[in-house]
Specification:
Number of helices: 21
Number of strands: 11
Shape: globular
Pfam families: MMR_HSR1
Strand order of the largest sheet: 6-5-4-8-10-9-7
InterPro entries: G_CP_dom, GNL1-like, GTP-bd, P-loop_NTPase
Function: Possible regulatory or functional link with the histocompatibility cluster.
Structural class: alpha/beta
GO molecular function: GTP binding; GTPase activity
Protein name: Guanine nucleotide-binding protein-like 1
Distance between the termini: 69 Å
Length: 609
């Protein structure tokens, strides 16, 4: 019998940590194996640590070293649990319901349908207090106020009518601190569905009660066609006339070359190449009206751009140093809203938004180098931090917050607010996606009933057959070779997760439209701002694009198998994007291969270039 190797200190610590979690009744973040069978999707997580109720599900459990400075689980996402019956009902529906493509009209969305005013879909406010109160009394008062808010919300909305929203009071407290400390609020949203992530109650509270200004940052502008970007910008301006609106992208001119292109392309995507920092500066200059000297910020932006052009592959440690402060609890809990704007001649920008809208990418782009780790995992930002861009400008980062709304939960998942790896039932969201995109032409799927047919026939006949969400997942599992560990059946759960990650990352792009978009589409396609948006996105003109394609045609074609060229989009699960190109970079000498994605085709629109 061979002797077993003794456990290392690292393994012993890990075992001890698991034992502690089990004693607390905390099972962590779910199954560790990605090759688990389909039944894994029905498992329920039983995280009851520090919980007074049993109807809240805590997500994103992180290893916690009690000797560490911060508790990484303090700002975990807390969402209301769904009943087992509801999950099973949706799973059955995904097997039986035949997918039908929705009309273009159904892709249009109105913010008043998402946040109806009569439903009381606000957010918890910090109760009044004074310096004579003890810390314990203040916390108790905040907890009572928060429970009253939840009771009022449930009394106005029947069970099941609300979307997923944050139930962690600690995260709401971080929002209060950021709003109180900031002079100008950067409210960051995803351009693909901005009205999902723009709560009107928050805007009116900031501009009305706090008397502060909001800059709406339409992030990920490179994922939408230019006419749609312009349409959303004008729609938000018409709904909120005093709102400053800026379009932003961290990756101009760097689209996905293939559907399954690997994400980590850091060297090809410098942070200083982002499109939009100058527009944010101009908006802040208009708001401050000369009360803060922002010339140092403008000089920094130009210096970063010049340095990037001179040495595009410079390491992050060669960039300018940025002072970072971690805010302690004692420094924030007993702090009152600052009545003095631009105190000591410093502009404080608060960055807030839903999970996965790209807050960390915006901060990294403004700083000019990576200071915040970026992840597609909702709830990745774990604590409050401030970053000094210059001596007169600092940024405050806030963990992502999900506000209550009446949006479909399936659309919420496609927007990236719920960790895909912890979904109990991903199939209905896949069905929602497929009904709004030409998935067959993009994914090149073969219907499960034709799997045993002649392989030389390819996908012939798949278009005429009826598809369910389960069929799509099964066909994608067959296409990508996802098999369960024991029985070697098609792992449809993993396939569903893979498809959802493609949608969240923008590889399989679903963009919603403002109301009336189809009726005015010709106006937006000929809008005078179109060249400006295309320049922001880094898109080529028709002549430049033709020349680029001619150059590519002269190169050798790649004969490397597709499976070797295209790495699976869910290889990293929901881990940190440490090298953070966020997946869209491509160089002139890169050879496009397989599964070329046309986002405009997904939108059922013609190319605008």
């Amino acid at each position: 019998m061979p002797r077993k190797k003794p456990f290392s200190n690292k393994q012993k610590k890990k075992q001890l940590q698991v034992k502690r979690e089990r004693k607390r009744g905390d099972t962590g973040s779910g199954p560790s194996s990605r090759n688990a069978s389909v039944e894994r999707g029905g498992e329920r997580q039983s995280d009851t640590s520090d919980s007074e109720t049993t109807d809240i599900r805590r997500l994103n459990q992180q290893p916690f070293n009690r000797e560490g400075r911060y508790d990484p689980n303090r700002f975990r996402l807390h969402f209301e649990k769904e009943s087992k019956e509801e999950v099973e009902k949706r799973k059955k529906l995904a097997r039986e319901k035949v997918l039908q493509h929705v009309s273009d009209k159904e892709l249009e969305i109105n913010i008043n349908d998402i946040y109806p005013s009569e439903k009381g879909l606000g957010f918890p406010r910090r109760p009044s207090w004074n310096y004579e109160m003890t810390r314990e009394n203040l916390l108790r008062k905040e907890e009572k106020s928060y429970r009253d808010y939840l009771d009022d919300l449930s009394s106005r909305n029947p069970p099941g009518s609300l979307s997923h929203f944050e139930h962690n009071l600690e995260t709401w407290r971080q929002l209060w601190r950021v709003l109180e400390m900031s002079d100008v609020i950067l409210l960051i949203v995803d351009i693909r569905h901005p009205v999902l992530q723009f709560p009107p109650a928050l805007y009116h509270y900031i501009t009305g009660d706090l008397q502060k200004q909001v800059v709406l940052v339409l992030n990920k502008a490179d994922l939408c066609p230019p006419p749609l970007v312009i349409a959303w910008k004008h729609y938000m301006a018409s709904q909120f006339p005093h709102l400053q609106i800026v379009c932003f992208t961290s990756h101009p001119g760097q689209p996905y070359s293939t559907l399954l292109q690997k994400k980590r392309m850091r060297k090809k995507a410098g942070w200083s190449q982002a499109g939009g920092p100058l527009d944010i500066l101009k908006a802040c200059q208009e708001i401050t009206a000369g009360r803060v000297d922002l010339s140092s910020w403008e000089q920094k932006i130009h210096r970063d751009a010049v340095a990037e052009q001179l040495d595009g592959d410079r390491p992050d440690d060669g960039a300018e140093s940025v002072l970072i402060e971690h805010q302690s609890d004692s420094a924030m809990e007993m702090s009152s809203p600052s009545q003095e704007l631009y105190k000591d001649g410093v502009l404080t920008l608060g960055c807030i938004g839903f999970p996965n809208v790209g807050k960390s990418s915006v901060i990294n782009s403004l700083v000019g180098r990576k200071v915040v780790s970026v992840s597609r995992t909702p709830g990745h930002t774990k604590y409050f931090q401030t970053y000094y861009l210059t001596q007169t400008v600092k940024l405050c980062d806030c963990p992502g917050l999900v506000f209550p709304s009446r949006v479909d939960k399936q659309l919420q998942i496609l927007a990236g607010i719920y960790p895909v790896s912890q979904l109990q039932e991903p199939y209905s969201s896949v069905g929602y996606l497929c009904e709004r995109t030409p998935f067959l032409s993009v994914l090149k799927l073969k219907h499960p009933s034709l799997q045993d047919s002649d392989p030389h026939l390819g996908n012939q006949g798949s278009e005429e057959l009826s598809w369910t969400a389960w069929d799509v997942c099964e066909a994608w599992a067959e296409r990508r070779g996802y098999k369960t560990a024991k029985a070697a059946r098609n792992d449809v759960y993993r396939a569903a997760n893979s498809l959802l990650r493609l949608a969240i990352d923008g590889r399989l792009c679903l963009c919603l439209r403002p109301t009336g978009y189809k009726r005015q589409v010709e106006h937006w396609e000929n809008h005078p701002d179109l060249p400006e948006i295309m320049a922001l996105q880094g898109r080529m003109t028709e002549e430049e694009g033709a020349g680029e394609r001619d150059d590519d045609d002269d190169g050798e074609s790649s004969t490397e198998p597709e499976e070797e060229r295209d790495r699976d989009a869910d290889d990293d699960e929901d881990g940190d994007d440490e090298d953070e190109g966020f997946g869209r970079p491509s160089r002139k000498d890169d050879k496009p291969s397989g599964f070329t994605v046309n986002m405009y085709n997904v939108l059922r629109e013609n190319e605008c270039e």
